[in-house]
Amino acid sequence: MRIDIITLLPRLLDSPFSHSILKRAQDKGLVEVVVHDLREFSTSKQRQLDDYAYGGGAGMVMMIEPIDLCISKLKAERDYDEVIYMTPDGELLNQGMANELSLKGNLILLCGHYKGVDERVREHFITREISIGDYVLSGGELAAAVVADSIIRLLPGVLSDETSALTDSFQDDLVAPPVYTRPAEYKGMEVPEVLLSGHQAKIEEWRYEQSVARTRARRPGMLDE
């Protein structure tokens, strides 16, 4: 898989992809993450990327030309399954979407800034719009990193135990059950006895019951769907 991220602030993405699972995935050749500085595609001497909105109003708008030049260059080099715009009013990211995107080959993630991008970008270049929540960030970089992380960790060979992702919250339309590790007793706080029993069928039954109870308490809407 290859993920190309288009941004005004490429240095913001240095850290997320330079550590832990995401770095190991790249080192193994399981994914290629390429960050593109949109200023390199500006045609003005000042490397301008934004301008005032037609009709007036507060805030600046990202210009169409640099975005078009960048996306067109990338698409001339390879085929892309999706060109995704990170925006607060996009489709809300969930585990099902992450699963779906992890099966793709090449993705472009466009990070918004200011008041967003010229609407013609959304109309003519974007195939999907994604939000990580109903709130506004300073830019789309952190959201793009979240989307990339949710996808990359699902790729075969990324996690040392590939079954781990299958038992994450939301994979079976439930949140994950409580988990415990050693010691079995700490300052009077004990691990549930069933987890120490070695009886796998009873353990799985307990975990399922706990998942349902936790989902009912924390994400009740999931049980109604």
Automatic annotation (TrEMBL):
GO cellular component, one term: cytosol
Catalytic activity: guanosine(37) in tRNA + S-adenosyl-L-methionine = N(1)-methylguanosine(37) in tRNA + S-adenosyl-L-homocysteine + H(+)
Residue numbers binding S-adenosyl-L-methionine: 112, 132-137
Signal peptide span: none
Organism: Roseivirga echinicomitans
HAMAP family: TrmD
Keyword Membrane: no
Assembly and binders: Homodimer.
GO biological process: tRNA N1-guanine methylation
Molecular functions per Gene Ontology: tRNA (guanine(37)-N1)-methyltransferase activity
Alphabetized Gene3D superfamilies for the sequence: 3.40.1280.10, tRNA(m1g37)methyltransferase, domain 2
One Pfam family linked to the record: tRNA_m1G_MT
Annotated localization: Cytoplasm
InterPro entries, alphabetized: Alpha/beta_knot_MTases, tRNA_m1G_MeTrfase_C_sf, tRNA_m1G_MeTrfase_TrmD, tRNA_m1G_MTases_N, tRNA_MeTrfase_TRMD/TRM10
Domain tRNA methyltransferase TRMD/TRM10-type: 1-223
Family named by the database record: Belongs to the RNA methyltransferase TrmD family.
Protein name: tRNA (guanine-N(1)-)-methyltransferase
Enzyme Commission identifier(s): 2.1.1.228
The keyword Cell inner membrane is assigned to this record: no
Role, per record: Specifically methylates guanosine-37 in various tRNAs.
Keywords tagged on the record: Cytoplasm, Methyltransferase, S-adenosyl-L-methionine, Transferase, tRNA processing
